[in-house]
Amino acid sequence: MSVMMPKPSEAILSRRQVIVDALRAIVPGEGVVDIAQEMAVFESDGLTAYRQLPLVVVLPQTVRQVAEVLTYCHREEIPVVPRGSGTSLSGGALPLQDGVLLVLSKFNRVLEIDYDNRCAVVQPGVTNLGITHAVAHRGFYYAPDPSSQIACSIGGNVAENSGGVHCLKYGLTANNVLGIEFVTIEGEIVRLGGKHLDAEGYDILGLMTGSEGLLGVVTEVTVRILQKPETARAVLIGFPTSEQAGACVAAIIAKGIIPGGMEMMDRPAIHAAEDFVQAGYPTDVEALLIVELDGPGAEVDHLLAEVEAIGNANGAVTCRVSQSEEERAAFWAGRKAAFPAVGRISPDYYCMDGTIPRKELPKVLAGMKALSDKYGLRVANVFHAGDGNLHPLILYDANNEGELRRAEEFGNDILRLCVEVGGVLTGEHGVGVEKRDLMPEMFGEDDLKHQQRVKCAFDDKHLLNPGKVFPELHRCAELGRMHVHKGQVAFPDLPRF
C-alpha cells in the first residue's frame, strides 16, 4: 500500500481476543465479525487500490449499542473507523489494523416522513435513492443524487458532503440536511437541528456535515424533501473540443441561467457510456454537455432556446433536446453509468475529485491533456461542469509494474493544478487518505493546526478515523499550548481569564 497509515499498536493487537469478547457482550449474535475471511469484504472502500483488514468489524443495531461501543473504545483507547455502504472514493472508510470498523448498514429504516414540513427522518444506512423511493408516490424527491445513489448511504453522504448531478441548483448534502443525531467518542448522544429551517446556536450541524467520521458517528438524519418540478427537459450539446464545451459552461452561468444539472463528458467517457447504456449520445464529438432545465413549462422552453443559442455561439456541432421523460432519463442513465462503463475500457481506473472556478475549465482540461502525455496514461473526464467539480478518471493497469504509482502522481498533479487556478482539493469525495498528504498544497501550517484544534474538541485522543485528512497529527496538549517569545505572550495588552 503506497499510502502510509498509522503504525498499529502492538498493545491493542495483543489484546484482540479480549476486545472481541467485550464487543460481543455489547453487540451479541452476529453483530461482531472477527474471522479474517469474513472481514475481507470490509478491507477497502470505493478506493480499492488501498486495502487492509480491520482488527474487528462491529455491526450495531441500536443507538445505545453504538454509544456503548464508543464508550468502551474511548476508555480502552482503541481507534474506531465509522463506515456506511463503503462507496467512498477517497479511502475515508479504509480500516485500521488495530481499530474497530463500526458499520452502520443495519441502521436502514425510514423513521418518519413529514410532508407538511417537507422533510424525512431516516437512519444513516438508508440509501440515497431509497429516500426518493419512499416519497415518490406523493410527488416528492431528495435532491442530492451522487452517481452511486443506488448504493451509497445517507450517513456516508453526510460524512463526505456528497453532491451529484443536480447539486448545481439544489445544493450538496449540507444544503439539504436539517438535523442529525450523532454519538461522540465518549458515548454521548447529541442532537443538532431538527425539522426547522436552521439549527440554533453555532453551526455545529454544518461542521459535522463533511467531517469524514473524525468528529462523531451519525445515527439519524433529517433531510429536506422537495416537490418534483412541473417540467424537466435535458439537452445534449456536442462540441469539437473540450475547451469549447468548457467555455459554453461558463457562458451559460454568466447569462444568469442556473440549470437543474449541467454535466460534461469527453470522448473516451462518451464512447464508454454509449457502448454500455445506448443512451443516444453522439459519438463523433470530443466533448458532450448534458444540460437540464426544470420548472414551469414556459420557463423551461424559453431557457432551452437560450442554452441552444449559447451552445451554437461556442461552436456546438450537435444539439438534441429530450422529447419525453423516458428520453431525459436515458440521457442521465448514460452519465450515471459512466464510472462503471469506463471499467469496460481499462482494467483499473483512479477517480479524482477536484473543484475549480468555472472560467478555468479550458485551462485545466488542456493541462490534463499535457499531464496525460507526461505520464503516458489515458484520462476520461466525467464531471459536474456547472459547479466546476472535476472527476477525471485516470486509466491504468495495476498488473503493470509502476502504473498505479504513476496514476497516483498524475492525480496529485491534477489536484495541484486545481489549487493553482484558485480551486480546492475536493468537491464531494472528501480528503480521506487519498488527498491527505496534499493538504499542505491548499492549507498553511496554522490552518491545519486550527482544524486539528476542532478535532481535539470532539476527540481528544484522536481515536475517530485516525490517519485520515491530516498529513501530520499533533497531540491536543501540544496544540493547546500558548507560545511565549522572549518572555512575551502574543498581544500582552489583552486580558486573559
UniProtKB/TrEMBL annotation:
Keywords from the named record: FAD, Flavoprotein, Oxidoreductase
Classification via Pfam families: FAD-oxidase_C (PF02913), FAD_binding_4 (PF01565)
Positions of the FAD-binding PCMH-type domain: 50-228
Cofactor requirements of the protein: FAD
One function term, GO molecular function aspect: oxidoreductase activity
The protein's name in its UniProt record: FAD-binding protein
Source species of the chain: Jiella flava
